[in-house]
Amino acid sequence: MKKLLITGGAGFIGSHVVRLFVNKYKDYQVYNLDKLTYAGNLENLRDVENADNYHFLKIDIVDEEAVFKLFSEHRFDGIIHLAAESHVDRSIANPMEFIYTNIVGTVNLLNAARQSWKDDMDQHLFYHVSTDEVYGSLDDGGYFTEETPYDPQSPYSASKAGSDHFVRAYHNTYGLPVVISNCSNNYGPNQFPEKLLPLFINNIRNNKPLPVYGKGDNVRDWLFVVDHARAIDDIYHKGKVGETYNIGGFNEWKNLDLIKLLCKVMDNKLGREAGSSEKLITYVKDRAGHDLRYAIDANKIMHELGWQPSLQFEEGLEKTVDWYLSNQTWLDNVTSGAYQQYYEVQYGE
Ligand code: NAD
Ligand code: TYD
C-alpha cells in the first residue's frame, strides 16, 4: 500500500484530486491534510469520506511542529501539495496570510519531506501545484510557456512564485525529487463563491448585481476542474522529476464575453426571459494591479504526457451551472456567516 499525502484536499481543486485518487487507486492510502479555512469544506468529499483508503487530518501547514510530527508518524511515498490561500482579492486586502500559508507552509512541508525521505530520496515525489499567475500578465500576443520568466503582479501570485522558487531550490540544493505544474483558471463544482463564476451564478440566482471589474476586458484561460485533476494524476505518475508542466485548455475568454454567455445559460436554466440576467451587470472599480491576460501554452503536457482536456467549454459551463443550481444548500451554507462580512467589505453592500 502506498501512502499519498494530499494537502488542501477539502478545497475546490483538492477535493476533485482526492476523489480521483481515492476512487481510481485502491492500492493508495490517501491522506487529506487541510486546515479547513473558510475555503475548505468537508462537504465537498461526502461521497468518499467513508472509503477504506481515505483519511482526513486537520493540520495547519504553517505549524512546523505539527507538520514534523505528521511526517514522523507516516512515511509518505509522495505528496501532492495544493493547500494555499488562493484568492487574489483577499491577497490585496491581507497579504500576510498568503506569505504564511503559501511560502512558510510550503517550506515546512519541504523540510519535513526532506528529513523523512533522507535515506531513500529517489523513491519519493514532492508535487507542487501552482498557477499560471506567477508568469505575470500578457498583452494581446503570445502564451505562457514553461520557460516564461516569472513576473508575479499580485500578492497572491508573488507568494505562489516564492513557493515555486523554494520547491526548485530544494531540488537543486538537496536533490529533493520535485515536480511543479502551473495551471490556468479552473471552474466547476465546489468552487467557493468569491471567484468569478460561482459568485456570478449565485448572484444571478439571487437577482443581485454582477460586479464587473473595470471594463470587463481582461482575458482568462478557463479549464474544467476535473481536467486539472486528470492532469495532476498524469503528472504525478508520468511527469519527469525536476520538470515543470503548464496546464490549460487553449480556452481564452474576455471576462465580459464569458459573463454574457453565463447570463444566457442562467436565463435558460432558470426559465427567465432572455436578457434578464445581463441587466444585473454592474461595472465597478477595477481590481488594483489587475492582470490583463493569461494564456497557457499546454503543448508540453499534451505531447509528452498525452493529456488532453475532456470537455468543450460550453459543455463544462452548463455542467457547472447545473451543479450549483442542484446544490443550493451547499451554496447557502458556504455563503452564510463570515461570507456576508467578506462580501460587504469587498463589494460595499
Ligand atoms: P481553495 O482556496 O479552494 O482551497 C485551498 C484549500 O487549502 C482549502 O481547503 C483550505 O482549507 C486549505 N488551506 C488553506 N490554508 C491552509 C493551511 N495553512 N494549512 C492547511 N490547509 C490550508 O483553492 P483552490 O482553488 O482549490 O486551489 C488549490 C491549489 O491550486 C492552490 O495551490 C492554487 O494556488 C492552485 N491553483 C488554483 C487555480 C484556480 O483557478 N482555482 C488555478 C491554478 C492553480
Ligand atoms: P477570479 O475568479 O478572482 O480569478 P483570477 O483573478 O485568479 O483570474 O477572477 C477572474 C476574472 O474575473 C479576473 O479578471 C477578475 C474578474 N472579476 C470580476 O470582474 N468581478 C468579480 O467580482 C470577480 C471576483 C472577478
Radius of gyration: 20 Å
The SSE string, one letter per element, is: EHEEHEHHEHEEHEEHEEHEHHHH
Q: What oligomeric state is this?
A: single chain
Order of strands, widest sheet: 3-2-1-4-5-6-10
Proportion in helices: 40-55%
- Could you give the distance between the termini? 52 Å
Strand content: 15-25%
How can the largest sheet be summarized? 7 strands, parallel
The name CATH uses for the topology of the domain at 2-187 and 224-247 is Rossmann fold
- Total number of β-strand segments? 12
Ligand roster: nicotinamide-adenine-dinucleotide, thymidine-5'-diphosphate
Low-pLDDT parts are none
Report the top-level CATH class of the domain at 2-187 and 224-247.
Alpha Beta
Shape: globular
Would you identify the CATH H-level superfamily of the domain at 2-187 and 224-247? NAD(P)-binding Rossmann-like Domain
Mean pLDDT: 97
Content-based structural category = alpha/beta
Which architecture name of the domain at 2-187 and 224-247 does CATH use?
3-Layer(aba) Sandwich
Count of discrete alpha- or pi-helical segments spanning 4 or more residues: 12
